[in-house]
UniProtKB/TrEMBL annotation:
Single biological process term from Gene Ontology: tRNA wobble position uridine thiolation
A Pfam family this chain is assigned to: tRNA_Me_trans
Binding-site residues, ATP: 6-13, 32, 125
Region (Interaction with tRNA): 147-149
GO terms assigned for molecular function: ATP binding; tRNA binding; tRNA-uridine 2-sulfurtransferase activity
Cellular compartment(s): Cytoplasm
UniProt keyword annotations, A-Z: ATP-binding, Cytoplasm, Disulfide bond, Nucleotide-binding, RNA-binding, Transferase, tRNA processing, tRNA-binding
Protein name in UniProt: tRNA-specific 2-thiouridylase MnmA
Chain positions of site Interaction with tRNA: 126, 356
Amino acid sequence: MKVVAAMSGGVDSAVAAARAVDAGHEVTGIHLALSRNPKSYRSGARGCCTIEDANDARRAADVIGIPFYVWDMSDRFHEDVVEDFMDTYAAGQTPNPCLRCNEKIKFAAVLDRALALGFDAVVTGHYARLESGPEGVELHRAVDRGKDQSYVLGVLDERQLRHSLFPLGDTPKSDVRREAAARGLLVADKPDSHDICFVADGDNAGWLREKLGDRAPNHGGDIVDEASGEVLGRHDGTYGFTIGQRRGLRLGRPAPDGKPRFVLDIEPVSGTVTVGPREHLAVARIRADRPRWCGAALPDGSRLEGPGVTVQLRAHGAEHRAVVSVSSVVEEAGRGRHETMEIDLIDPASGIAPGQAAVIYDGTRVVGSATITATDRAALV
């Protein structure tokens, strides 16, 4: 096949490109320019948006012996990922920009351009596996569970999966680094990126404060104790908080029982942040909106349950046994119908925030995902 290898400048994408060559594909390396001014996003070898990363990707392509180009996706990235990140926080929710980048950029804008140019697929260094199933290609967890990235790929549909290659899904990360060194790739020891690529120094709250500090209704509000209703303090904006947060509340005094308080609710219109005890974070039911299916869609009114059915609620979070129900609702103002999802957690989860993604699994297979809109607390024992 004729494929493009998305090369971030890290070790994983470099080895994935090299493996695609070994598999007999005609490979062209591409690096995504996600900012017209890379210094405005991140400096240093921690992200995927810098001049250093572009140079690392180019050097890796030279070693592998493949053509290399830079594709400017900065406008699309800013609109679909950065603006979405800001808008979601402004609404009192917690987004996952990496998941949105996969949905809107790497496997939509990039794939569409690649197919238009005559390529057959996009190769990435994600840790996930593709398998043939009875209804077509299926997305599965990686062999290395510690590096598994199927969660952030749970937004891909069956068409996108048919035009994707994940060569690292069957390999532990330690073996990938050794392979990179053996191939003479200078990125073999380059640290992994763990922060949001467009937030300088990993300071999410500071970045959001700069971007949203004066945007109503996010400028200031009360921090309120759930049990007593007492105002415990003030804050500069709801964007600085997420459900389950403990650190950085700056309340000045402990709870009456001496235990720490956690963020339980965020109300962006009034600016009220409600705090309370850890046990009030436990969630038993999740409501989510507009599912995306990684294969055949679950029909309206269907119910997915069984010993292998689980939901993952964070990129590196635990699996929770669950029962998933799908239904459709009529939108207001005659805008048609859309699907919704209810997830009953057999194992309650803590600190689940609207805006996050719920990714549904059946064993190792990714069924699909949806965006969390609301949660119901577990009953206190």
